[in-house]
Each structure stands twice: as C-alpha cells, then as structure tokens.
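Forum: Protein Structure Q&A
Topic: Joint prediction for protein chains with partners

I've read a bunch of threads here and the consensus seems to be that you should model interacting components together rather than docking separate models afterwards. I'd like to see that in practice. Below is the full input, 496 residues plus whatever partners are listed. Could one of the regulars post the assembled result?
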Amino acid sequence: MCLAIPARITAIDPTGETATVALGAVSKDCSLALIEDAAVGDYVLIHVGYALNRISEEEATQTLDLMREMGVLDDLPDALPAADPSGLTV
Amino acid sequence: MTDPAGKLHISLDPAAVTITSTRPVRAAKVFVGRDVADTVRLLPVLFNICGTAQSAAAAAAIEQALGLAPDRRIAELRRHLVDTETLREHLWRILLDWPKFLSSDPDAAAMTQAMRLTIARRTALSSGTDPFAPGASAAAPDQPAAGQAREDLAALCTERLFGVTPAAWRMRVDRLDTLAVWAADTDTVAARLVRQVIAAGQAGYGRCAVGALPDLSAADLDRHLGADAATTDDFVARPVWAAQPRETSPLTRQQDQPLVRNLATDFDNGLLPRLAAQLTEVARLLSDTPVPTAQPTPAALAPGLGLSQVQAARGLLVHRVHIRDGRIAAYAILAPTEWNFHPRGVVAAGLRHLLQQCGADRIAPLVRLFIAAVDPCIDYALDLPGSARSLPQVGDTRNAELNSEF
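Posted by a regular:
Agreed with the consensus. Here's the joint model:
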C-alpha cells in the first residue's frame, strides 16, 4: 500500500538539505528538498527518502495507531508520550 | 524495525527473477468494525501517498454499499482531484527520479513548485465541499483559481519537461522519429533521458508477453476477490486475470495514443514506450484530459456490498467493502503495484528479458531504470547477479531509502 511514515525531526544538517528523523528508537536520514522551514521537533511524513510535508502530532499519532493495529509496528512499544525530546516514541 | 510501508525484494540471477513483497496488502482490514464516518476519515490518513485516489475509491464503494445514488458532479470532481494527484505523482518520477539515470541532481525546486500548485488546484476544485464524504453533493468549484493552477503547472512543465507547451508536444511528437527530433532539440531531463535510451539502443528493453488488464466489471472483480478471507487475501496479494498476470499502468492507459501506439509497434511494452506513456499522460492531464477510464456500469451487487474502480497514478485501484449495521464488516483494497509486481508479472518477465538482452555486468542501472518506468510506489531492494551486494538487513534503515538504490 502507499504509506508514508510519520517521523519526528531530531536534527537538521547545517546545509538544511537533509534531516535525521526518528521513529521510536530508529533513526534515518531524509531529504528536506520538498519542504520549507522545517524545524527540529516537527513531525513529517517520510516516503522513499524524502520528507513530504509537515503534519500535526495528532495526525502522526493517528497514523501510527492505525499502523500499530495493522501489526506493522509490532516491535515498538505502545503509547505516545506528550513530549518526547528523543523522537516519536510509539 | 521493518519498514511499515513494506518493501519489494527483487532478485535477479541468470536463471530467474524473483520478486517478493512485504507490502501490507491486507492493511484495509484495520477498518473492520469501525463505523463508516470513522473509516472515511482515517483511510487517507493511513494511505497518505495516493490518499486522493484511495478516498475516491472508498467513497464510491461505500456509497454503493449504502445504496446511495451517485452524484454526477461529485463523481466529476473526484475524477479531477484524482487526476491532479496522478499528475503530481508522475512529476515526482520525472523530476526527482529520472535525473538519477542521467547522473544529474533531482529537480527538487520544480517538484516543490509542482506540489504547491497541485495543492492549490485541489483546494480550488474542492472549494466548500468535502468531496469524499459518502453522499456528498458538490458546491461550485473556484474555477478561475483551479484553472490558474493548471496553467501554472503547464508552464512549469513547458519549462522543465517538454521545452514546448504540452499541447504542442502532443501534436508534434507522435512516433519514433519525431520523438527523437524533440529529444535532440530539447534540453530537459525528460528529453535527455529519452535521447539516452534511444542512442543506447534500449528502447525495447524489458519487453515481455504480459498483457494489459482488460476493462473489468464490478461483478467479475467481486467474484475474483471471492467470498472468503483466504481467497480475497490471496487475490489482492497476487492478482491474475484469466489465470495470467496482467499490467495496469500509464502505458496500458495510453496505449491507443499515437506516440505510444507507434512506439509499441517496434518496441512492444519496452522501456521507451513506458517513458513516452508517462510523458503523454502528463501532457494530457495538463490539457485537462482525464485519465482514460472505462465507466463500468454499476453492477447490482448484493445489499451492503460496494465495489469501486479508480484509475490512480500507477494503474487501476479497486476497493470492495461490506457494510453491516453501519459498520465495516470487510474491506479489501487491490492496488496496481500488486498487478505489476506479481511474481510472474510484467516486471518479473521484463527483467528476465532485460537479463537476456544485456549482460549481467551492465545490467544494474538498466534494471533500476526499468523498475522506475513501471513505478512501484515503494522502496525496493535489489539483488543482482554476481554482485557482492547483499539485501539490506532487516532493521537497517539508516540511509536505506535515501537514493541508496541508484
């Protein structure tokens, strides 16, 4: 299925072109070429190495809850803390 | 952590091409037990890449299941919205992926502009309406703004794709020689890639005998999806028609267009017709020509059952829903990627032919180009013959998707 994964920006490269995003304990790099004014702490949708757009924390939570129900996040702990400085813990 | 979006694993060796998939093809089951409103709200949240096509298919299937008469203006609005999404997806391929095959940088600036304009067009078209609410009726769209967004997209594509207006391109480029002239005279990524493929003699690469999916009736699709979960699960994962894998794609949609038809005479369903079909579809969408679609006669399906077909960016998308007492009793989604990346499908067969046409030592970039031309909407891992490269380890997500396959 066409799924873009919500993740939280934890660091931005000094060039502003790439960012590190976190989904739970997993980090990956992505390109910021398609969005503007991204900031650490923003939630973004990730698809094939690009951050597509910013989404709200509520939308990120909803999406991840659905993915957890689908069973594709089965190795990540439950619950999204209100403020998690290390990333999107799910 | 495995990627929640799943992945295709494509393995080539001289004897065989093997495609395995971890795509979550049964994802729609997450809606079972939910009420209709909740399902309509959550579906595009989950399927957020082609959310418009998914929402359009869901709305139509749910309306049929609930016995709601379709509103002609809403149907037309949904079609325009889906076509706008299709245009965006094609531009992603052409502006961001095609440059990689020319050792050029992705045209991120143009893609950002394209995304902005497709959002503007969508907003103007939907003005005052929730177009995907079952039973919705359409308010008047903001035609001037929608038209302006389309004109701006056409101007962007004139500059970054065609070198001439999309309409002029369609008129002038109708067969191999006019395509070659255009490619030689135009300095855009699209033209350079076409020029490269022609010059390298790769126009017919990847051709195979897998045929196009014919127009289908809802009743036929319902029969193939079956009444029991096991049959449905198997069909959505590995669909076949008349016992054969089939293709559904911009190539099959545009096969009666002069350029694509003429190229197919010499190159069948090989690489150059595929690239040409995607450009043709972009040009047609920019002139507000809808993506070709058979309008299936609404079938008299059982009460509580709805089945819809939408021509999404990569091919035919099918939704089937059973509703009982206002709640989802069953939900199945059949996506175009499952047709095209079937273990015996057009990609597997095309890559086998590619292996025969050029040696294993030269094949890597061609494999990636061919896969991009079919366009899987998902990341994939490639295992090539004689390569020391191994498939990415499960859990190894660092940089796995950032251009790592190119």
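The first strand of chain A starts at residue 5 and ends at 12.
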